[in-house]
Amino acid sequence: MLQTATCQHRRRAFTLVELLVVIGIIALLISIIMPALGRVRDQANRTKCMANVRSIMQGIVMYSSENKLTLPYSNWGGNPKVTPGWLFDNPDWGTWKTEGGEPLWSYLEEGAIYRYLRSREIFKCPLHTQRQSQGATERFTSYLMNGSACNYTAMPPFKITRFKVTDILIWETGESNLVGSPFNDGCSTPREWLSERHGASGRKNGKVIGNGGASIGCVDGHCEWFSYKDYEADLNILNGGGPGGTSRLFISPTMSKGGWLPP
Length: 263
Fold this sequence. Notes:
The structure is a single chain. Helix content is 30%, strand content 15%. It is of the alpha+beta class.
């Protein structure tokens, strides 16, 4: 009787084979779940990034409604002494008061759009945690204004009514470790680049791998997801001098081809 009870007690213990099977099942479940969690995390960051762009566009629309429908200054090379740019207020781009080598937050907080939003966080993508471009104002923002909207100068801004509602005014800037080195000064040319933080898996032979893209803000205030493939197609839509369609990136109301720049 004692021997039978002892045998029954021994049968309840895990064997090495059973333990290995359980570990294998757990590893299989983790391999299935982790990609799904990664996609959820990426989608959450993408949603937050788009919410940031939407808030910035709301600030630009509010600014325009209070300034005779005129856009804020683009910050191309700084801004006039009496009028802040959309991102920051510093008429002398070459000189910054700094802390730890970075410009003071007061430059951002005196910008035209910050006054409506009152949040530093809105101006940075949650995935933008390390410096990846040239330009002092990367501390402030992941998002830049379209330079073709100001004819690539510090000229007085156009009225918002000079543009089509689907024209792209704001986008999330690219990273220097991919192609070239973007220059973050609050305003850029459309070729200086669209972000690949979301969804891309690097590059092969100069082409983006995966479904990379970024959030963009359009003139009427709405936001979209703009894939890198769509971005590259738009850059070349006016190539060769033919009609080719209408660019959403080269949007100058007065320059030839909307200010289109060759590759």
